[in-house]
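Two entries, shown back to back:
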Amino acid sequence: MPDVAHDLRAFTGEDHAVRVRTGPGTSLIMHDRGLSTVIGNDRDSTGRLLSSSSKSKFNRLRTWDQRSRSRSTASLSRAFVIMNSITAKLTIPSTVVERAAYIYRKALAAGLTKGRTVQSLAAASMYVACRETGTPRTLDDMAATANVEKRVLYRDMRRLLARLDLKPDQYKISAFVVKISNNLCLPERIKRDALEILRRSEEMLITAGKNPVAMASAAIYISCVNSDTQMSQRMLSKQAGVSDVTVRNSVASIRDALNI
C-alpha cells in the first residue's frame, strides 16, 4: 500500500499548494523512478471486463508501449528485476538496493554495459553497494544468487570501481561473526566470545590480509570449543562459503598467536 500522505506539514493554503503531492514517492529501484503509467489488465475502474473492441484497443496500446521503450530503459528494467530477486534471497535492506540502483544507472550512463551481461553488472552493483554500506554479503553469495561466474562478477566489480571512481571500505570481520552466528542460531555468549577473540587477533595483526569470512569462522569455532558447544569446522565452512581447510588454517593461526 503506497503512502500518499503529505511529506511536510502545511499551515497555510499556499504552503499546502506548494507541498502537496499525490501517489507514492519516486524510487531509483524502478526503471522509470515510478513516474510512468502502467497499462493494466482487461478490466475497467469498477472491475468489470472490457468489451472485445476495448480489449483489442488496449492490447495495441500495450504493444506500442513496449516498442517505444529505449534500449537503456529495457536494460534498467531487467537489472532492477535481478536486483529485487537478489534482495529477496539475501535479505538485503532497501537502502542498499537504492544505492545499487544508483550505481547501475551511473554504469549505464558511462557505457559500461557494452560487452557485459545485465545479470553480472547488476550483481556487481549490488556487491559494491553492500561493501559501501557495510552489509556483510560475500562475492560467493552474490555470484551464486545471481547465477553468475565468480570470476566474471569480480571482473565487472573491479571495472565499476575503476571507471566510477568508487572506493568502498573493506568489510569489518565482526560483521561476518554476527552474520554467521545468527545464521547458525548460536547463543549470544558464543558471539561475544568470538568477537573478543577477533578483537585480540586484530590487535596482533593476525587478520591483516586474511579472508575476513574465514577469520570470522575461525573465531566462532574457537569460541564454540572453549564453551563445549558442538560445532564442526565443516559445518562452519559450509555456512560461511569457504573450504574447511581454509577454516582449519585460520583456526591454527589464531591459536598459535593467542596461545589458546
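entry 2 starts here
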Amino acid sequence: MTIMALSAFAAIAPRSAAAAPSSWLEVDGNIAFDSASGASFDWGNSGATSPTTSCPSASDVSTSGAGGLFNCGSPDAGSAPPTAPPLTTAAAADASIRSTAFVADAISSDDTTCGSGDPTTFVGGQKNGDKISGIGYTTGSNPSKSDLGNVYAITHVKGNGHPEIFFGAERLVNNGDSHVDFEFLQSVTTAPTACAGTFAGDRTEGDLLIAVDFTGGGAIPGFTIYEWHCNADPGTQPADGTVCDPTGTTPPHYESITAPAAVTVQVNSAEIPCGGWVCRDKITGNAVQVAANDFMEGGIDLDALNFTGCINTYVPHTRAAQPFTASLADFAGPIPLATCVNPPVANAGAGASTSSVAWGLGLLAAGLTLLGGMRRRRRR
C-alpha cells in the first residue's frame, strides 16, 4: 500500500514540545487494520467485505477480520443517506477510548427529512474564524469536490494519561482543488434547528483547526495547523477554554502554528478498500472502494500542543477555495466529541446518520470546558 505523508505549511517557529500521536491507531493512509504495524486499531477491520453474519441485519455492510473501530453500516432505501456503523465489540470494550463519532453526512443528491439536497450546507459568505453564533446553514448543494461523505473521529487516552484525537474523512472526488478543515472546539456547539438556521456556540482560546488543501487539480495535498488566540501575536494568551468571540476587528483570530511532531496527517495515494460501511466515492463509482486522495486521516497529541482545555465539538467542513478565509461550503455535525470526562451531549446535525457517540469515563479527572484564570503562555 502506497501512502502519502503530508507536509505542514505552517508559518511560525515550533514550540518546544515534540511528542507525537501514539501508534494506538494506525495513521497510514489506509482504512483497513494492518496488524503488522503494531497498532491496536484502524477505522475498519483487516479483511474484505464479507457476509453480514456478525451484523444485526442482512443488509448491513461488514468487513471480516479484526482491528476495526467501526463495522455494520448499511445503505438506506432510495436516495436517503446511508446509516453510519456502530463501534465494533472490541472497540466498545476498550477502556482507553474516551469518545467516538461516525457521521454519514448527507450529500447534495440526497433526500432527507429536509427535502432534496444537503441540510448541512453553509449559507454563502461564511468563513473560518467567523463568530460561531453568526454562522448560518441551510439545505442546499455543493460541487462534488466540496461535498463530504463519511467523517469520523475518536478521542483516546494514552498510557501517560494524556488525551489525543484521531480523525478521518472521505471526499467524493479527487479531480479538482479541494479544501477540508477539521475543526475542534471547546464550546458545546450545535445546529439548534433542522434544515436551516444558525449555529449556537462560542470560540475559545486554544480551539484547533487542521486545514488540508488539495491543490494541483486535487492531486497535491498539504496541511496547516491553526489555533484560536484571544490576544494579538506575539504575546501572552489566556487559559485554554477562555471565551473570546471575534468582534470584527483583531485580536481574536486563528493563528497558524508549527507543531510538526504533535500533528500528523496522511492521505491515500492509491485506491483503497472501504470499511464496514457505505462509501460514496464518485470516482470509483461503487460503495466498497475509495479513490486515491479521497481519504484523509490524522492524529493530534494535545499534550504536545500544551493544550489544557476540553474539546467538546468536532466540525469537519470544506472551503470553496484555498485561502483560509474563503467561503465555507459543506459541513458535518456539529458532532459531539470529548477529550474530558462526561461532557454534555449535543445533536450531531441535521440530515446526517450518526452512530451512537460513546462517552467513556476515561482516566483524567477533568471537568467541562475550562473557563478559568489566566495561564500565561508565550506564543512564538
